[in-house]
Design brief:
86 residues; alpha+beta; three-stranded antiparallel beta sheet; 2 helices
Length: 86
């Protein structure tokens, strides 16, 4: 989950252990399989390792277990999307 501190600094919190994530290299996203174009689904941010495995299982659906993506890759995709629409 994404939060903001009192001084407007972004703060990520793990969806499983709810501890802050201070290093994006230690985090990843989990999302359900089978998302169709135009659909939106909840994605979860979690620490890599046990937390990510648990959230991946929570995102399971009829298509199988949830998928994961490094948080840094997600950021790169967002930057690419922004530059393509600018």
């Amino acid at each position: 989950m994404l939060f903001m501190t009192y001084d407007a600094q972004p703060a990520l919190r793990c969806a499983i252990c709810e501890k802050p994530i201070f290093n994006v290299a230690e985090a990843a996203l989990a999302y359900p399989r089978g998302i169709e174009p135009g659909e939106m689904h909840r994605i979860c941010v979690a620490h890599r390792g046990t937390c990510l495995q648990k959230v991946e299982a929570q995102q399971a659906n009829e298509y199988g277990p949830g998928l994961t993506m490094e948080l840094t890759e997600y950021g790169d995709r967002l930057r690419g999307l922004h530059s393509a629409t600018s």
